[in-house]
Each structure stands twice: as C-alpha cells, then as structure tokens.
C-alpha cells in the first residue's frame, strides 16, 4: 500500500483527494493541514495530523515520523489578491515551504506531486500545453512558477499538476469559488458583473483529484495539465451556471477588464490543452454541465461531498 502525505488537506483539492485515496483502498493517507481537521468524517486508511508547512522543523519532524512514499502539496496561498498585498506571506507558503517539503522528500526518497496554476502564463496565447513558456503577471503566479523551478531542480522523482479555476464543494470551505459565488448571488437576487474578456477551462475539484490519483497510481513524472476541457469566459460560465440551477440569468451583466478590475492582474486567455494527461494518464474530466450536475446532487444530499 502506498503511503501518501497530503498537505493542505482542509482545502478544496485536499479534501477531495483525501476522500478519493481512501475510497480506492490502495493508499494509507497522512492528511495534514494547518489547525484542526475539517474533513467531514473519519475515513478508512486516513489519519490526520496538524502541520503548518511554513514551519521547517515541524515539516522535517513529520517526515521522520511518517516516512511517506509520496507527498502531494496542495497547500498554498490561493487568494491571488492577498498574494499581491502580503508578499512575504506568499513567498513563505508558496515558495519557501516547498523547499522544506523537497528537503523532506530528498531525505526519505519520496515522490513529490506539487500543484501549480495557469497563472504562471501571461494569457496572451492560451490554451497552453505543458511545453509553453511561463511569464507570470501577478505575484501569486510568480511564486507558483518559482516553486515549480525548485521542484524541477530537486533531483527527486517529481510531478507538477497544473490546474485552472477550480470549483466544487467541501465542508467548511475557507475560500469560495466562482460557481458557488454565482449561484449564491443569483439566489440572493443580487446583480453580478462578470467579465467576457478572460478565457479559462474551469476545473471540477473531483476531476483534479482524479488527475492527482492517476499520477500517483502510475508514478508519472513531469508536468501535467489537469483542468476541465471547455474553454469559456467567466460570463459564459455564469450563464451556464444560472441555466443549470434554474436561476435568473437577467441578474448577470456582461463587463470587461476595463470596467472590472482586481488588485492582481489576471491573464486574459489561459485554459489548458489536455492531450498529455489524456493519453498518458487516461485523464477524462467531466463536461462543465456534468460537473454542475454533480454539484447540484451534492448540494441536495443525493451525492457525498
Ligand atoms: N483554486 C483554484 O482555482 C486553483 C488552485 N490551484 C492550485 O491548486 C492547489 C490547491 O488549491 P485549492 O485546494 O483550491 O486551495 P485551497 O485554498 O482551497 O486550499 C489550500 C489549503 O492549504 C491550507 N494552508 C494554508 N496555509 C497553510 C500552511 N501554512 N500549512 C499547511 N496548510 C496550509 C489552507 O488552510 P485553511 O483552509 O485553514 O486556510 C487550505 O486548506 C494550490 O496549490 C493552488 O495554488 C491552481 C489553479 C487554480
Ligand atoms: C468576483 C468576480 C470575479 N469575476 C471573474 C474574474 C475572474 O476571471 C473570475 C474568477 O475570479 P476570482 O477572483 O474568484 O478567482 P481568481 O483569483 O481569478 O482565480 C484564480 O485562483 C487561483 C488560485 C488560480 O490559480 C487561478 O487558476 C485562478 O483560477 O471571475 C468577475 O468577472 N466579476 C466578479 O465580481
């Protein structure tokens, strides 16, 4: 049985991945995150331990204690605007902590799967494949690219799973996501202004977890693009979400980057080409509507989250 240490296990991907690894029956999982566990229930073959990955001593001590075969680093500062204002905190978590994990993996000859983002690209030429050249526009994007470079230079057996605009539902979320935000706003009767000049391939959290499990299952090394397969604007995403949940589309107003601004610059056109993950891992993401349907089932208690 493969022993896997997951960081950021309270997060959106972390919770999905812990559940998936438990369900397959092939992994013993050490789920770690900062603070108490927010996993909804005790799961077979899963133990939880608090771990702040910015604490080098704590990271190395946990590696010595648990001796994992695989490490999946899902923890990150994922609030892109916060990364712009708290640059020190961003580097500590998104870059320096990755160096501590690499150190632990080197000592115990563990495989490292690290999560990264479409925001390493400038969005001038999306959708991108794994060979495209990064040119981040934001501090978040730069931090994630710097961490990728550490992983690639580590001498470890490593994989990097890059993803795009993840949506989904887990218990006690510390951060919402675009689909839940659209749904809640429309349910509350609030007007929303959504951009039509950015393009993304939004990713169902379950699909991303599946992609990570496939990498672990096959000991697949290198960079893999793991996202949804449909390129769309956030405006289109909002309309399709409204239709799927039977909500009022008239509340959704089209805007663009000249009128809607955020503190961190977003790349205009990203999205991923998935050919490598499809051919090498048999990665098969849900369609966007199928992803929304699963979310609807989870929200109504017809499927587990
Ligand atoms: N979400 C997205 O749209 C995208 C995400 N990614 C990447 O995918 C990965 C997973 O993202 P996602 O699951 O959505 O992120 P989340 O923000 O949902 O989860 C990150 C988790 O890391 C935890 N964490 C924060 N600081 C620390 C720390 N010092 N030590 C240990 N754990 C910590 C957070 O804890 P707490 O909950 O307590 O804050 C949170 O549970 C990240 O690497 C991200 O950069 C890439 C592209 C898109
Ligand atoms: C809040 C809001 C967002 N948007 C658009 C802008 C943007 O393209 C999209 C999502 O905006 P957010 O600020 O929620 O998410 P954002 O920070 O852009 O999401 C990113 O998260 C990090 C972690 C990543 O790695 C990236 O892949 C990326 O998906 O929605 C609007 O058009 N209007 C709005 O009022």
Automatic annotation (TrEMBL):
Pathway recorded for this protein: Carbohydrate biosynthesis; dTDP-L-rhamnose biosynthesis
Reactions that this protein is recorded to catalyse: dTDP-beta-L-rhamnose + NADP(+) = dTDP-4-dehydro-beta-L-rhamnose + NADPH + H(+)
Gene Ontology MF annotations: dTDP-4-dehydrorhamnose reductase activity
One Gene Ontology term from the biological process aspect of the record: dTDP-rhamnose biosynthetic process
Keywords noted in UniProt: NADP, Oxidoreductase
InterPro entries: dTDP_dehydrorham_reduct (IPR005913), NAD(P)-bd_dom_sf (IPR036291), RmlD-like-bd (IPR029903)
Enzyme Commission code(s) on record: 1.1.1.133
The RmlD-like substrate binding domain, residue ranges: 3-295
Family annotation (SUPFAM superfamilies): NAD(P)-binding Rossmann-fold domains
One Pfam family matching this protein: RmlD_sub_bind
Function of the molecule: Catalyzes the reduction of dTDP-6-deoxy-L-lyxo-4-hexulose to yield dTDP-L-rhamnose.
PANTHER family: DTDP-4-DEHYDRORHAMNOSE REDUCTASE, METHIONINE ADENOSYLTRANSFERASE 2 SUBUNIT BETA
Family: Belongs to the dTDP-4-dehydrorhamnose reductase family.
Protein name per UniProt: dTDP-4-dehydrorhamnose reductase
Source organism of the structure: Catalinimonas alkaloidigena
Upper taxonomic lineage: Bacteria, Pseudomonadati, Bacteroidota, Cytophagia, Cytophagales
């Amino acid at each position: 049985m493969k022993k896997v240490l997951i960081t950021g296990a309270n997060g959106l991907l972390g919770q999905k991945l812990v559940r998936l690894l438990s369900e397959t029956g092939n992994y013993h999982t050490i789920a770690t995150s900062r603070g108490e566990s927010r996993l909804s229930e005790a799961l077979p073959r899963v133990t939880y331990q608090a771990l702040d990955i910015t604490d080098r001593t704590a990271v190395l001590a946990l590696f010595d204690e648990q001796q994992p075969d695989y490490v999946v680093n899902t923890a990150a500062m994922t609030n892109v605007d916060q990364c712009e204002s708290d640059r020190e905190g961003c580097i500590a978590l998104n870059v320096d902590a990755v160096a501590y994990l690499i150190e632990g993996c080197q000592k115990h000859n563990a495989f490292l799967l690290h999560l990264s983002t479409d925001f390493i690209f400038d969005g001038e030429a999306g959708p991108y494949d794994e060979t495209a050249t990064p040119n981040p526009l934001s501090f978040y994007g730069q931090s994630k690219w710097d961490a990728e470079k550490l992983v690639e230079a580590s001498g470890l057996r490593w994989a990097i799973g890059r993803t795009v605009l993840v949506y989904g539902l887990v218990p006690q979320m510390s951060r919402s996501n675009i689909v839940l935000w659209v749904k809640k706003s429309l349910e509350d009767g609030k007007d929303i202004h959504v951009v039509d000049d950015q393009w993304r391939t939004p990713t169902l959290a379950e699909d991303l977890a599946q992609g990570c499990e496939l990498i672990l299952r096959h000991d697949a090394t290198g960079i893999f693009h793991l996202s949804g397969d449909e390129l769309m604007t956030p405006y289109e995403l909002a309309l399709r979400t409204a239709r799927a949940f039977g909500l009022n589309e008239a509340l959704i107003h089209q805007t663009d980057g000249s009128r809607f601004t955020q503190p961190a610059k977003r790349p205009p056109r990203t999205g991923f080409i998935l050919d490598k993950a499809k051919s090498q891992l048999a990665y098969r993401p849900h369609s966007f509507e199928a992803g929304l349907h699963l979310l609807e089932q989870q929200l109504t208690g017809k499927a587990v989250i």
